[in-house]
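Usage

Read records sequentially. Each one opens with the input sequence:
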Amino acid sequence: METTRRRIRLRMALVAAFAMVAVLMVSAQADAGGAEVTTGRFATTQAGTDAGYDISGVAIMVRLPVGDDGMTKVRVLVRGLDPNITYPTHVHNGTCASGGGGHYQDVTVGPDGFPPGPVDAVNEIWPFISTNLRGNGWGAASHGHWARPEAQSIVIHAPAGTSIAGARLACAQLN
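and closes with the structure output:
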């Protein structure tokens, strides 16, 4: 029993160290190239707690001055989810304190001239998270635009097919 606990603590420490090294490396590259880096830690929402989750992890968003429109890359690493599931995960336009707001969109007006714009992985930033046997997971997304300042948080939603599908399970405030 104690050996298992030690292994779990060691794995958690390794994951945290990996995440911090990744953040430091990207930050150093960004400082040299005019990029903007924001990071955050995931915290379980009330809906997530009510559903029995204890989610933690890290998120990083890197906005790069590439081409005419720039580029945005998002990476997330989490633990505490159910095993072998893909979780819908999106960049949101509000703070975690305000519930995350709605999905951040590059184009905010649809072809009919009314909001919202297209709801798809091209217009929105979707770093969907796939988990392993232990409920640890990661996700990534890259987009051909510089995300505006209203891209403030990343929200993990409950997957389709569950009784709480779409519920906001965890949020990472990007600072």
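Summary fields computed downstream for this record:
- DSSP finds two helices and nine strands in the chain.
- The first helix runs from residue 2 to 33.
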